[in-house]
Amino acid sequence: MTSTTDTPPIFLPRVARTPFYYGWVVLVVAALGSFASGPGQTFTFSVFQNSFIEDLALSSTSVSTLYLFGSLTAAGLIIFIGRSLDKYGPRRMMVFAVVCLGLGALWLSQVNVAWQLFIGFAIMRTMGQGALSLIPATMVSVWFVRKRPMALALMALGGAIASGIYPFYGATLIDEFGWRTAWIVIAITGWVLLIVPAIVFIRSSPESIGLRPDGDTDESDEDADNSKKKPERVEHTWTVKQAVRSRMMWLLVFAGSAQSLVGTGVAFQQVSIMTSKGLSIGAAAGVFGIMAPAAIVGQFISGYLASRMPVRYLIAVGQVGLVIAMIMLLRTDQLWQAYAYGVVLGLNQGFLMNLNQVVWPAYFGRKHLGSIKGVANFGMMASAALGPLPLALSIDQTGSYTLGLYAYMALPPLCGIAAIFAGNPRPAP
Is 9-213+234-421 assigned to CATH 1.20.1250.20? Predict the structure, then answer.
């Protein structure tokens, strides 16, 4: 492994001779990738749901079921995306993912029957929620170690901004051009945003261009040793086989499931829940705009705390916020209450999303991170796929979302316990 101390600056690749650490360039592209994942996220599909129901003559339950199986298919495929990321590198995989995401959007613009909609959901969830969430976070985790929690929080700005922009972008396109043309425009938007930056700027690791993570040098290492302010951060290296055989990994996967399941379920049904309580569609959609900046704040709070406290305790604390948000949603019947709920859930989602990215390199290292996160993301995406089901069953069986929201409250405490019992990071067996 080559470092800046072994290789004089004049012999470094030109791309590494920036006046600042090149990892920040990679982080910007990763944030752009996180933003470009928006078309494959639930908050975008929520504004197209009524169009699918009306134009394809499908029931709400049918669309939710197709979305469920499309997301479960994506959860299975993400394991292979993770392995391919380790094998082919982030640049090729990022370009592949955004090209396929655009093709999936074009496919959705032409669907006419249920099976075609299922294929569209599977492609968009695999490449959007899956690949374009996995690849950017893995890139940043490889380029940063000491500064990783805050770097991941900065990267996640892209996804948080997307959650505030894409629902309005999609709704505006639907109003102006119709939902089929909207998907075509969304496909072109993703290609324009990401393909060229990914090809030009992404590099696989700092070591690949003669640098060290965080831009460290021997001099900075000596300064850190002399200051003695903090103990040295040890990075463990696990293989994917070692990880999947460990109890620790599956406890952490389960610990992150509540955020995926509850967040996706509520986002998918949020407009319906609030309109059932007497709020307008515009007001209900506006809550997404409140959640986005709140999520950004939550990401930076967790980024600050994760470098100072064990991540497992922070994940456990975050489960409390999920329960509080569900209680607030149950009692929401006025606009100010809806906005207050949006702030609380947004803060909590941002807080937990960042922690669920930090935890994997912290526990299992960088070397096989793509493959390990591919398996972990399978659990997260499967949870997200099941998310809308409790609310759908609740409204179909009881005529109300109340029972489903109570069911959501039962999961976070169990996830908090799992996080605590995962223990601290330790060497591979």
Answer: yes
